[in-house]
Design a protein that fits this description.
About 45% of the residues lie in helices and about 20% in strands. The protein is α+β, with helices and mostly antiparallel strands. The chain has a 4-stranded antiparallel sheet with strand order 1-4-2-3, sandwiched between helices. The chain starts with 8 loop residues before the first helix and ends with a helix.
């Protein structure tokens, strides 16, 4: 399955710009310290929103997720903890009709299930900083990335 659709040149540029930012944040080769010792796996190939239950099959409980719309624009950056797992968190978003209407694909940074809350917050905050979404996605707010390196190293 794929999240690709036929789009205009302008939409293609927007998608490429967003994807470049997502890859810059998610690539453990480029920013290994952003995830440190807690990174378990990366699932960067866009998974269709309707197939999000697949992460349950993979055993993903804790991680950072990025949700894009059909044009590839980032619509949500969030975290899931081991308490109700990634699939539970994503299903919570799906219960919101406004989100369900625009969410098309999801990518995940699978973190160790025992990642401390402070480190999980710092990684999410660092991703928000690297993606530059603190200003562009207001009123959403993300945890600060203060001391993220010392928390994940």
């Amino acid at each position: 399955m794929s999240c690709s659709v036929s789009v205009s040149s302008e939409q293609s540029i927007a998608r490429l710009t967003c994807w470049t930012r997502v890859m810059a944040v998610c690539s453990p080769c480029r920013f290994p310290a952003a995830y440190g010792r807690y990174l378990h796996a990366t699932y960067l190939r866009p998974l269709p929103w309707a197939d999000r239950g697949h992460f349950n099959d993979l055993g993903v409980l804790t991680g950072i997720y990025l949700i894009t719309d059909i044009a590839g624009r980032l619509r949500w950056l969030g975290q899931a903890s081991r308490l109700n797992g990634l699939t539970g968190r994503l299903d919570g978003h799906d219960r919101d009709p406004a989100k369900r209407a625009v969410f098309a694909c999801v990518r995940v940074l699978h973190l160790d299930d025992l990642t401390p809350t402070e480190a999980l917050d710092a990684v999410e905050g660092r991703c928000a900083d690297l993606l530059g979404v603190r200003q562009s996605m207001k009123p959403r707010r993300w945890p600060p990335a203060t001391n993220w390196l010392s928390l994940v190293a």
